[in-house]
Specification:
The structure holds two protein chains of two kinds.
Chain A lengths: L8 E8 L5 H11 L17 H6 L6 E8 L5 E8 L7 H9 L3 E7 L6 H12 L3 E7 L8 H12 L7 E2 L8 H11 L12 E10 L3 E10 L1 E3 L3 E4 L4 E4 L2 E5 L3 E3 L2 E3 L3 E5 L13 E4 L18 E7 L5 H13 L5 E7 L3 E8 L2 H14 L4 E3 L6 E5 L4 E4 L10 E16 L3 H10 L3 E9 L2 E9 H4 L3 H8 L5 E11 L2 E8 L2 E2 L5 E4 L3 H15 L7 E7 L2 E8 L15 H16 L1 E4 L2 E4 H9 L8
Parallel strand pairs in A: 1-3, 1-4, 4-5, 5-6
Antiparallel strand pairs in A: 2-3, 7-8, 7-16, 8-15, 9-14, 10-11, 10-16, 12-13, 12-15, 17-19, 17-20, 18-19, 21-22, 21-23, 23-25, 23-26, 24-25, 27-28, 27-29, 27-30, 30-31, 32-33
Helix pairs in contact in A: 12-14
Chain B lengths: L8 H5 L6 E7 L1 E2 L11 E2 L7 H4 L1 H16 L6 E8 L7 H14 L2 E11 L6 H10 L3 E7 L3 H6 L8 H11 L4 E8 L6 H13 L4 E6 L7 H7 L8 H15 L4 E3 L2 E3 L3 H7 L3 E5 L4 E4 L2 E5 L3 H9 L5 E6 L2 H12 L6 E2 L5 H12 L5 H5 L2 E2 L3 H5 L1 H8 L2
Parallel strand pairs in B: 1-4, 1-11, 2-3, 4-5, 5-6, 6-7, 7-8
Antiparallel strand pairs in B: 8-10, 9-10, 12-13, 13-14, 15-16
Helix pairs in contact in B: 3-4, 3-12, 4-5, 8-10
The chains are: A alpha+beta, B alpha/beta.
Chain lengths: 606, 390
Amino acid sequence: MPTTDPASIRNFCIIAHIDHGKSTLADRMLQLTGVVDARQMRAQYLDKMDIERERGITIKSQNVRLPWTADDGRAYVLHMIDTPGHVDFTYEVSRSLAACEGTLLLVDAAQGIEAQTLANLYLALENDLHIIPVLNKIDLPAAQPDKYAEEIAKIIGCDASDVLRISAKTGEGVPDVLNAIVRDIPAPTGSVDSPARAMIFDSVYDSYRGVITYVRVFDGQLSTKDRGLMMSTQNAHEILEVGVVSPEMTPTESLSAGEVGYVIPGVKNVRQARVGDTLTTVRNTATESLGGYRDPRPMVFSGLYPLDGSEYPALREALDKLRLNDAALVYEPETSLALGFGFRVGFLGLLHLEIVRERLEREHGLALISTAPNVVYTVLLETGEDVVVTNPSDWPGGKIAEIREPVAKAMVLLPSDYVGTVMELCQGRRGVLQGMDYLSEDRVELRYTLPMGEIIFDFFDQLKSRTKGYASLDYEMSGEQASDLVKVDILLQGEPVDAFSAIVHKDKAYAYGTNMATKLRELIPRQNFEVPIQAAIGARVIARENIRAIRKDVLAKCYGGDITRKRKLLEKQKEGKKRMKMVGRVEVPQEAFIAALSTGKESAGK
Amino acid sequence: MPTSGALPTVALDGLGKRPFGLYLHVPFCATRCGYCDFNTYLGAELGGGALQAGYADMALAELRFARSVLGQACPQVDTVFVGGGTPTLLPAADLARLLSAVRAEFGLAPEAEVTTEANPDSVDERCLAELRQAGFTRVSFGMQSAVPSVLRVLDRTHTAGRPQQAAKEAFSAGFEQVSLDLIYGAPGESDDDWRASLEAALITGPTHVSAYSLIVEDGTRLGRQVARGLLPAPDDDVLADRYLLAEQALSDLGWYEVSNWGEPCRHNLGYWRGADWWGVGPGAHSHVGGMRWWNVRHPQAYADRLAAGHSPGAGREQLGAEDRRVERILLEVRLRDGLPLRLLHAAGLAAAVRHVEGGLLEPEAHAAGRAVLTLRGRLLADAVVRDLVD
């Protein structure tokens, strides 16, 4: 059976910050290698989802096989793996990196390296990948290639003259990049004769073809003659098709050691073919997996509710559909006194939340309201019992011995002018400084441990606004810590409104309570009676506002005999009343919930 | 709306078992007040005064039309109310002629109440005497306020003091009932202005006073001025205070409807109690046995329909059982007697209990099977209705 000689294969990925030109470089490589001709070309060719193109981000990994005749005159096969570019998807990135022998470090020559790029670079160095540093956008007037080449050289320990300088936009220097890949990145090792081992670095659901996995074969061969076996679950399945992507899916007889391609495993959903798993064959089963597999773990939870309660079944159906394609998405039904029927949904992070919400709204036509996101807390009761809290409503009532919250190691890259204000921000968010390094004369790397709950609450927006957008952030989970946390309830006329409850640090409870009470006083219309709004920790009231009673609600006007108009007016008012949610006797317009929940809402870091 | 204006037999069935009224709408004014969104026109807007001059003939045509539609079952008329607009822009002789036609076509009940609205500055002693002579028993003056600055904001042309004078003249002319209409809450009006207006109204000993809060309606000059921020919108808390002042001043007359005190206007009670009435004139509304209809609004269109022998009706609706139930709650709750609790469904009954506890409904009346608003409840009547109809 003909296989591609591993010696002529190069597997690489591209590490870059958003907007640093990764998709443009990929587009240029597709053209230069003749995989896509000018006629078929469109911008961001590999980003398939609308959301990806609009936001200029990559959510799902993509890969493409590029034939290239290098400057040594020989023909090579380059596999490019395009990785997601966001902290929520660090695990997916790590799997993509693990599928390669080398990576391009692509940096905007006008902006320098950013935190997520640096974090991914560290990840690549840990994986022993060969790094090819590339400065992009050298055609920009604001480009400072010398300065940033020095910066990169210092970080990765190379010579500044080794940093390639290109413009993906004009195509200048792109052939050099392809030649450098051939020259510098090691060919894959691995034995074609060993039992097959392939790592799944992406898994997607296609409504026509079922689950499609993208794999890097490390050892042996995979073909449709084999039955596949997922090593983490020991589940066997058909192999319906194997092939390569160039750039459309093209079936081949087999995929063998060193190659990157796709396998259609004949399973129903992406949970049965998970990213990071090792695929082997039933006939000649590998004894050891490639390692590195991890179950996706949701970090951030939020309640999602349809604005129109009758759309609850539609929301369930839409979530079920998204789940086919998103192994990290978890959800369970939840009922809110204030918002009705909905779901508690777990996400990898804020961007993941935003993407899921946007896809539900856009692809499924749903209008949704989401509660403020929270992280997962562990509450140890004095009885010795552990309670895992993914929803403020689940906060236990008994005597609490300790509360543990997730913490993250965060890295902020920023111009040195802003160090003071960012330190102030991190301190205010209960951050602990772990270290500070100068990347260059005027660029600083700050390392903090920060409670995850603080990061998901408006941190990124604050960081951006304090640094005029110049700071970048990356973080990874690093365990739990005991903290002095409390649950703050908001009560209307003595009735708690579950959607507004929040778990916050003791020192911030008052600020949260006052802020919510003030906001609600403005948002909730006056009723026939006075409505006290209280913020409380348990039975202790920490803030209070009052909505004065309305005194006049009568049309004291003579309409003559036009009773029809009066009745129509009543019908209109009744319609308005129907859209009200009752909290005890208090009528709260849906808009008030939305406004109260959405102010202070952050946009996820990209 | 069929051009014949014919009514289904179900609507005609109970005719005569309920009070029957006639409303005559006179859609003309000398000037247009900034707050008014009623169906009324200036002479100039209608291309000269021809339509105004021919109005009585048109109205007579509709009276005859009404007579033929109602047919044999047609009862005597218990109440007549001439409203507007400004009815007294028409010569007293025209109003007298209309009343004669009512007598001739329908017959007037012996104790019939016959009211006309009037602008204080469009009547004099002679005119009032003529109207009394013709058979009018009640006159209702649009006084609005006794304070010159408030009258100016409301675009009223009469001078302060003239309404009281007119009321005196009406009594002298032999009218049994004289009513004064007041408006509170105009931009710039103070509590003291309002007190002064109430006192001035009471000095003449009217048998009836209406006090309406100023409602800023879209499409009026006042509405535009408020929208552009040239005038402040009336504040609900201020309006509530003004209403309480009115109740204080008028308590001797005694309230019988949310905005009305004194000897009840039987014609208006008919509106609140689901009586039958025929509304004559452009834009007038009618109700007969669960059928409501309304005439075309423009005087020319109205005249053309009648000239062709067609109904001037623009549209109508037949009320279903639930519509009628809702309307009864909506309308009767505004009356001093309130409404019988048996009109309410379970949720409405529960709401009634809540409102007794909350002080919006009278406990004694509730115990006796009726929903009757308290003073505070009168100010929140619409909110109470929204709950009672559930």
